[in-house]
Design goal:
With 342 residues, the chain is α+β, with helices and mostly antiparallel strands. It folds into two domains: 58 residues; 278 residues, Cytochrome Bc1 Complex, Chain D, domain 2 (Orthogonal Bundle). It has eleven helices and eight strands.
């Protein structure tokens, strides 16, 4: 009878312990931490079917960049202006090892680590129609920014920013913005298709051609992730946290989670510095950017957990919780049981 009574008195503490354990597992195995991006579904803009098909036919892969002399098709070939200037070679600007010109226009540059390319300029007419439908109300009919409530510069000028900047904001779903008055644009499912996004990029860049172009990270699987980790810890972890889960910043802003970001957008963010993020142009070479993107894409987005549970990748926070739960919690139950028997 005494043993039965003791078992009944243990039921409530055991249930509390189990509830705490389950809550912790749900919290830490959710795969995100810090300020996570809000992913909402928006309707894809309806576009003319024929125009869409024609635009897709114009999309060609990035030009092959290999260690070779400049390829020029005209003696008047010249590079567009550089939105983010640096004199460092192979750091995201056209002073790269290789430049590719077509009909006198720079269509690609880069090296064996990252190739930079720009959409076909023939996409611009299709892109102009999409721009006027989705972007002009904030950025102006000429993409030069318009006042909001009499405040000049409230919506930024898009001219001369380069294809990588425009592509990042559209492909990440941050633009067109659901609420232009938000302190920080929220990442969501893209409103425009990939073809439409490149068409808008081609149109905006045609107004004032500039670099950086859209990066394509080469041989990502063979990148030096050890070097990428060291560079990430030095340059990125302060905001995105060492596990890439993101974290809150000042004035209702946050560094987003990196756990579901495509490699191209990671490289674009490093080179263009969207929002509160610093722009790493000149202080990181293409080889270093490739290693950082490799670390994010391989180690952060596909972590290996030898212990069995990743616990959300939160490190000491989750591990400390489990240690307290199993260590102190179980010992407390054992002590309660011993005391009750005594």
């Amino acid at each position: 009878m005494t043993n039965t009574s003791s078992l009944r008195r243990l039921v409530l503490p055991v249930l509390v312990l189990m509830l705490a354990a389950l809550s912790g597992l749900v919290l830490f195995t959710g795969g995100s931490s810090g300020a996570a991006d809000t992913t909402t579904t928006t309707d894809v803009v309806a576009a003319d079917t024929v125009a869409e098909a024609n635009a897709q036919a114009l999309i060609s892969p990035a030009p092959v960049i290999s260690p070779a002399p400049d390829s020029k098709s005209s003696t008047t070939s010249k590079s567009p202006k550089v939105a983010y200037q640096t004199t460092v070679k192979n750091a995201g600007t056209p002073n790269s090892s290789v430049r590719v010109f077509r009909d006198g226009n720079l269509v690609g540059y880069g090296n064996r680590d990252i190739s930079y390319w720009t959409p076909n300029k023939k996409l611009a007419p299709f892109g102009e129609a999409l721009y006027q439908q989705n972007c002009a109300s904030c950025h102006g009919n000429n993409a030069d920014g318009v006042p909001a409530d009499g405040t000049p510069g409230a919506f930024p000028n898009l001219r001369g920013l380069g294809p990588a900047t425009i592509d990042f904001w559209i492909e990440s779903g941050r633009m067109p913005a659901a609420n232009p008055r938000e302190v920080q644009a929220i990442r969501k499912n893209p409103r425009l298709t990939h073809t439409q996004a490149l068409a808008v990029v081609a149109y905006v860049n045609s107004l004032s051609p500039a670099t950086p172009y859209i990066p394509r990270v080469n041989r990502l699987a063979s990148s030096d992730t050890s070097d990428g980790f060291a560079l990430f810890a030095l340059n990125c972890a302060a905001c995105h946290t060492i596990t890439g889960g993101g974290d809150a910043l000042a004035d209702n802003t946050y560094a987003p989670s990196l756990r579901n970001i495509p490699a191209t957008q990671v490289a674009e963010a490093i080179r263009t510095g969207p929002g509160n993020m610093p722009r790493f142009t000149g202080n990181l070479t293409d080889a270093q950017v490739r290693n950082i993107v490799g670390y994010v894409s391989i180690n952060i987005q596909h972590p290996v957990n030898p212990g069995g549970f990743g616990l959300g990748g939160l490190g000491p926070v989750a591990e400390g919780f489990i240690a307290l739960l199993l260590g102190v919690g179980v010992l407390a139950l054992v002590g309660f049981w011993i005391g009750d028997r005594t």
